[in-house]
Design goal:
Elements lengths: L23 E6 L4 E8 L4 E9 L1 H22 L6 H8 L7
Antiparallel strand pairs: 1-2, 2-3
């Protein structure tokens, strides 16, 4: 059995750390990685904010963690409303901008 070491997270910003609010995302797939491209969408312009890349395995684990936390959020604060229009877009297998 491998003993896990607990890592400390430094609570300081570095040149590569970021805080961003995004209301748009595109996702690009390849056999080796999944690339999340974040945007700030306004009525007049779409501004590229940055991207996050991870392995497909990491992305799958990330999706599970995200889903678990959405469930916790809704248990605490109530269901997150999603418009019928957005749900219809998600049900289409096309590229979706949320």
């Amino acid at each position: 059995m491998v003993k896990e070491e607990k890592r400390e997270t430094e609570n300081m910003k570095t040149n590569s750390s970021f805080d961003v609010y995004s209301n748009g995302i595109d996702i690009a797939l390849s056999p080796f990685d999944i690339n999340f491209m974040f945007f700030d969408n306004s009525p007049k312009i779409q501004k590229f904010l940055g991207q996050l890349k991870m392995s497909p395995e990491h992305a799958k684990v990330f999706s599970k963690i995200l889903q678990d936390n959405i469930i916790k959020y809704e248990e605490m604060f109530g269901e997150i409303p999603v418009s019928k229009e957005k749900l219809d877009l998600l049900n289409k297998k096309d590229e979706v901008e949320v």
